[in-house]
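Lecture notes, unit on binding sites. The following record was shown on slide 14. It pairs a sequence with phosphoenolpyruvate.
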Amino acid sequence: MRKNIVAGNWKMNNDLPQTEALIVDLLKQTQTSNAEVMIAPTYVNLYQAFDATRNSNIEVIAQNMHFAENGAYTGEISATMLKSVGVKTVILGHSERRAYFNETNESLAKKVDAALKNDLRIIFCFGEELSDRKSGNQEQVVENQIKSALFHLEASAFKNIVLAYEPVWAIGTGETASPEQAQDMHKFIRQTLQNKYGENTAQDVSILYGGSVKPANAKEIFSKPDVDGGLIGGASLKAEDFIAIVNAF
Ligand code: PEP
């Protein structure tokens, strides 16, 4: 079922006291909203964040996971570990993971399988580089990212998948895709899903936009028919800004 979602990706920011303080601020301001609200703190603070948001409408989610169940993967975290601290949703394929940690469409397909096998919902990120957009290849790049990591799945798997279109040139740069550019790409993504899985699946999947969303531009971006919410980086670190973005719905 298609839902409006606003998810904050805190990346490698906020130690434990800062995590707790930001959650206190968020809880003061979020009572009801027309969107599902999620925050993704760093791994080491997931349990405390989960505890601090109990009985609230904020879901604590993870920024990444490994594809193996357990074993000799020093420094990595598995799906079962995430589940054991209460996590139900994981972000996979963020462009920073692809760029700095060599995540590929192939390794992401394995992570997708591991998350689904463990009943985790996935926010699957993808998006083109500036050079792709300049050369007019953005749709081809995005189609390839989606197909290689997701199109081995059955249609039913998409009940547990949220897509996040994040043009790399707009992440953390202050540069935002225009609402029209976002809508055009989201429509293309939905059509790509429809071609493979049919209209019902395509219409049911939530597609988030990410890339310098701020209180000032959220409303217009979210008003586009194929944009179902946002994955928010920088602006999710300030309670007031994040709540203003949530309230843009
Ligand atoms: C992100 O990291 O997913 C993101 C969209 O970052 P920002 O909002 O800072 O561009």
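Take-home: The chain has a mean pLDDT of 96.
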